[in-house]
Design a protein that fits this description.
The complex is a heterotrimer of chains A (306), B (363) and C (267).
Chain A: H1 4-44, E1 47-49, E2 55-59, H2 62-68, E3 69-71, E4 78-80, H3 82-114, H4 118-133, H5 136-147, H6 152-159, H7 173-197, H8 201-209, H9 214-242, H10 246-251, H11 259-267, H12 273-298
Antiparallel strand pairs in A: 1-2, 3-4
Chain B: E1 5-16, E2 23-34, E3 38-42, H1 49-57, E4 64-69, E5 72-73, E6 84-87, H2 99-109, H3 114-127, H4 143-155, E7 161-165, H5 173-190, E8 193-198, H6 201-207, E9 210-215, E10 218-223, H7 225-230, H8 235-240, E11 245-255, E12 258-263, E13 268-272, E14 282-287, E15 292-295, E16 303-312, E17 316-323, E18 328-334, E19 348-353, E20 359-360
Helix pairs in contact in B: 2-3, 2-4, 3-4
Chain C: H1 14-36, H2 52-58, H3 61-92, H4 101-113, H5 116-134, H6 140-163, H7 167-175, H8 180-209, H9 212-217, H10 225-235, H11 239-265
Helix pairs in contact in C: 1-11, 2-11, 3-6, 3-8, 4-6, 6-8, 7-8, 8-11
Protein name (chain A): ABC transporter permease
Keywords (chain A): Cell membrane, Membrane, Transmembrane, Transmembrane helix, Transport
Membrane topology (chain A): Multi-pass membrane protein
């Protein structure tokens, strides 16, 4: 008969073996249909472009060079690819802008929900949750219908006599930003609310007791305590903004591309898969850097969804 | 009463962690628990009492040693193969089942026929006086009722030993008192061996046939409540259970369980000592506060000192005395209706011992 | 009248901004829904109430076809993802840290960390290779891709449920002679059920809503409802899209409502 300590050891080993077996399906699916293909993208970025899309299996750094530089057709000299740089700049600019605007609007909204009485709080939270889970395409479409030249804003303004010509909002950077703030706002409000819900309002009372003004209470007490929520929300908004595809392609049109559209272009009409791969890897690298910065800041607490 | 052992714990150690962080939750513990006994493991939190209970239940395996249930080593068996049931501190009632379904669970798992299960559940409900609540969800009954269901559930499969892990700690004072009596009744009616874990010395003294006092992974003393209270073997036991005075003394003579010691006042008094020890030289004595009296100093006084504080407690008065050798000494005297005991702060008093009140400690 | 009492929780302007946010979140959707009932062909003027765009969507074979495909994929992907996520959650909770645990967390949550467009082109490359090798051209690619990105969403509520579950309940079952398998079936699974249901619903909605990955992975004639709509919007706006969106919205709201109450009502 096995001794108790042998039983304990083999039980522990078996437990860990079982845990690997149990997680195997999820790990394999994600490996095959999410992580693994990323390595193929990395490989493709170092291959030569095929004439009709796809790649030729020979090593080439052309894909990477073309991310930021362009080769002159006549004299082979390299110069900065202004078009690509502009798209990178627009993506970063609009993503940061979107993040900041969602904080500006999301912070008071989350605070508003968190300070509602227990009974109605659920309802307000529910109202934020619905857009969170409704189709991003539909919500982008809703914005598109409002801001286009024949949309309700321009129609009303013209009817009211403020303007004779519709204001061109659609197909501008502003349109993309409005759309992204609109679709990603719930992603900011939910983690903010999660950290505000835990806020101990006796601390606010203590602040007022110690002669703090409303602004001082907000800046010195509330904000520091809900900072983890602000950081989590910023990450949740910044990452999808940077990689946004649907919103800029519907609201930005062909001229105001973001990185997502640039990548699509290389796999479509551009027929430059290595360049598309290299841009994809670059985009992922920027996201990873942002995530690492977040992990550094927020300790080991994980990114929460919903 | 038969002296057959239900549980025998032999040289059991349980180590947690590795390397420098390793510590022994149980350090070479041996103890025998008799059939039909109400046995209590008593000690402060972290002393290893719950670990020992978990080893007997099978939720953990000992690093070393054996656990015998009626002679068979059960230490390597998983919990579902041991005829031992547990009443958990949190009760651990299944929230998705009714009271009746909870009680039936163990019997079902043992594959008992339906009719037998139903009869047994009814019997158990009657035993714990919960017949009316059979179809309630466990979240719809009070804490005290949950406690009874937990008991019924653990008793239903007629285990050879019932383990109780601080089962009364979540109840309020009055309910706890009621349940103490209830538990004694259940143990008496079912004739099952109970192993009870608690950190409450009063609870242990009230309910147990025998008590094992534990500290830092070791069992320090096993004995009847009377033994433990009046004949503590070591300082920790004396200190943990009730209030105690410690006095220095020199052994004058010792044989046959009786000793004579000289106090620092020069007075010689008789004392008892734990079996298996042979006291000599300088020793520590314990005297319970209620076994001494304050009186005007005279020739029969064991010690002389002055009163530092008088604390009135309703039933008793505590006299905090500073003996002439500097040792603090507390005397507890029962109050009578007509006024207090007549001594005031700063007054000089003599301490008088009753018959046979001093016990010599091993350490 | 005394001065207005000082409200500890109020901050100036916050309520105004919050109300603006709620209005701004819902107004575009309400307008979108309103135009679905517009009799006029143009979406810029109101031509009276009509259900004709719903009828036209209903009679559009492409719409019906895409809807059925969307549901096929969502049901299968959510089912696979929920099963895999439940197993993974059981393997990664209620244990002391063991080697590989952090690795598993990172792995399972990876689809949340990588921009969708990157995963989309990665799958495009990978699956186009497989298609060349095997000749397979069925829905399997989409189902596989959807399963992968649904796993972290299904995993979240299941894991949360498991972590809040009292470990002593299973210990009590074992103490009452339940073998590990019976303890799982009789105690763990019934208690986990609301989490599994919530996980399934989340995965279902996420799969149903997906545009980007589907748009890259789909083969010819494999449009789902969102990719069909994307194509139509790019081509030009008709109120039919509003009608489809309205129906879609209704379905999403229904599922989210179910999810919201399933995950909140219990304990």
């Amino acid at each position: 008969m096995a001794s108790a300590q042998e039983t304990a050891l083999s039980a522990e080993r078996q437990d860990i073996r079982n845990r690997w077996l149990l997680s195997a399906p999820a790990l394999i699916i994600i490996l095959l249909a999410a992580i693994g293909p990323l390595f193929i993208v990395l490989i493709y970025s170092f291959l030569a472009a095929g004439p009709y899309g796809d790649v030729e299996w020979k090593f080439s750094t052309d894909g990477w060079i073309s991310v930021f530089l362009q080769r002159d057709i006549f004299d082979d000299t390299l110069s900065f690819a202004d078009a690509h740089l502009a798209i990178f700049w627009r993506s970063v600019k609009l993503s940061i802008g979107t993040t900041l605007l969602t904080i500006v609007f999301g912070f008071p909204t989350a605070y508003f929900i968190a300070t509602r009485p227990e009974r109605t709080r659920e309802m307000w939270l529910f109202l934020i949750t619905i857009p969170f889970w409704t189709n991003l395409l539909i919500r982008t479409f809703a914005i598109l219908q409002i801001i286009r030249n024949e949309g309700i804003i321009n129609t009303l303004l013209i009817k009211a006599g403020f303007i004779n010509q519709p204001i061109q909002i659609l197909f501008t950077d502003t349109a993309i930003m409005i759309g992204m703030v609109y679709v990603y706002l719930p992603l900011m409000v939910l983690p903010l609310y999660a950290s505000m819900e835990k806020l101990d309002f006796r601390l606010v009372e203590a602040g007022y007791d110690l002669y703090a003004s409303r602004f001082a209470v907000l800046r010195r007490i509330i904000f520091p305590l809900v900072k983890p929520g602000v950081i989590a929300g910023s990450i949740l908004v910044f990452i999808p903004s940077l990689g946004a595809y649907v919103t800029p392609s519907l609201l930005g049109g062909g001229k105001n591309m973001m990185l997502g559209n640039l990548i699509e272009l290389q796999f479509g009409q551009g027929r430059n898969w290595p360049l598309g791969s290299a841009i994809s890897i670059t985009l992922m690298a920027i996201v990873m850097i942002a995530l690492l910065a977040y992990v550094r800041n927020a300790g080991s607490s994980e990114v929460r969804h919903g | 009463m038969p002296d057959k052992n239900a549980i025998e714990v032999r040289d059991v150690s349980k180590l947690f962690g590795t390397g420098d962080a390793q510590f022994a939750a149980l350090d070479n513990v041996s103890v025998s628990i008799r059939e039909n006994e109400f046995f209590t493991l008593l000690g402060p939190s972290g002393c290893g009492k719950t670990t020992l209970l978990r080893l007997i239940a099978g939720f953990d395996y000992p690093t070393d040693g054996q656990i015998l249930l009626y002679g068979q080593d059960i230490a390597p068996l998983p919990p579902f193969k041991r005829p031992v049931n547990t009443v958990f501190q949190s009760y651990a009632l299944f929230p998705h089942m009714t009271v009746g379904q909870n009680i039936a669970f163990g019997l079902e798992m043992l594959g008992k026929p339906k009719a037998e299960i139903e009869a047994r559940v009814a019997e158990m409900l009657k035993l714990v006086r919960m017949e009316a609540l059979k179809d309630r969800k466990t979240s719809q009954i009070s804490g005290g009722q949950q406690q009874r269901v937990a008991l019924a559930r653990a008793l239903a499969p007629q285990p050879k030993v019932l383990l109780l892990d601080e089962p009364l700690s979540a109840l309020d004072y009055k309910l706890r008192k009621e349940m103490q009596i209830e538990l004694k009744r259940l143990q008496h009616e079912t004739g099952i061996t109970f192993i009870f874990v608690t950190h409450d010395q009063e609870e242990a003294l009230t309910m147990s046939d025998r008590i094992a006092v534990m500290s830092a992974g070791k069992i320090l003393q096993v004995g009847s409540p009377w033994d433990i209270y009046d004949r503590p073997a070591v300082r920790f036991v004396a200190d943990f259970i009730g209030e105690t005075n410690f006095l220095h003394a020199d052994v004058v003579s010792a044989n046959d369980g009786r000793a004579t010691v000289r106090l620092s006042s020069g007075k010689e008094i008789p004392a008892t000592f734990p079996s298996g020890s042979s006291p000599q030289g300088k020793v520590t004595l314990v005297v319970r506060p209620e076994h001494a009296r304050v009186a005007a100093p005279n020739g029969t006084s064991a010690h002389v000192g002055h009163i530092e504080n008088v604390v009135y407690l309703g039933t008793d008065t505590h006299f905090h005395v500073r003996l002439d050798d500097g040792t603090p000494f507390i005397v507890r005297q029962q109050n009578s209706r007509n006024g207090h005991n007549g001594f005031a702060k700063a007054e000089r008093v003599g301490i008088e011992f009753g018959q046979d009140v001093a016990q010599i400690l091993k350490d | 009248m005394a001065k207005r009492r000082f409200d500890l929780k109020a901050l100036p302007g916050f309520t105004t901004i919050a109300v603006i946010c709620f209005v701004a979140l819902y107004l575009p959707i309400i307008i979108l829904v309103a135009y679905a009932f517009n009799a006029a062909t143009s979406t810029s003027e109101w031509g009276g109430f009509s259900l004709k765009w719903f009828a036209s969507a209903w009679n559009n074979d492409q719409v019906i076809d895409a809807t059925i495909r969307s549901f096929q994929i969502a049901v299968l992907a959510a089912t696979f993802a929920t099963i895999a996520a439940t197993m993974a959650a059981l393997a990664t909770t209620r244990t002391k840290a063991y080697r590989g645990l952090t690795f598993k967390y990172a792995f399972i949550n990876q689809p949340l960390m990588v921009p969708e467009i990157v995963t989309a082109v990665a799958l495009l490359i990978f699956f186009s290779r497989i298609k060349v090798w095997t000749g397979y051209a069925g829905l399997g690619y989409l189902i596989g891709a959807h399963t992968a990105f649904c796993i972290p969403f299904a995993y979240l509520p299941i894991r949360a449920r498991l972590e809040s579950m009292d470990l002593t309940l299973e210990r009590a079952a074992a103490d009452l002679y339940a073998t590990p398998f019976k303890a799982f079936r009789r105690v763990t699974l019934p208690l986990l059920w609301p989490g599994i249901l919530a996980g399934f619903m989340l995965a279902f909605v996420i799969s149903l809503d997906d545009v980007v990955i589907t748009n890259f992975v789909k083969l010819g004639g494999q449009d789902t409802l969102p990719t069909y709509m994307l194509g139509q919007i790019r081509r030009g706006i008709t109120p039919e899209i509003n009608a489809i969106s309205t129906a879609f919205l209704l379905l999403s709201i229904l599922i989210v409502t179910l999810f919201f109450f399933a995950s909140r009502k219990r304990d």
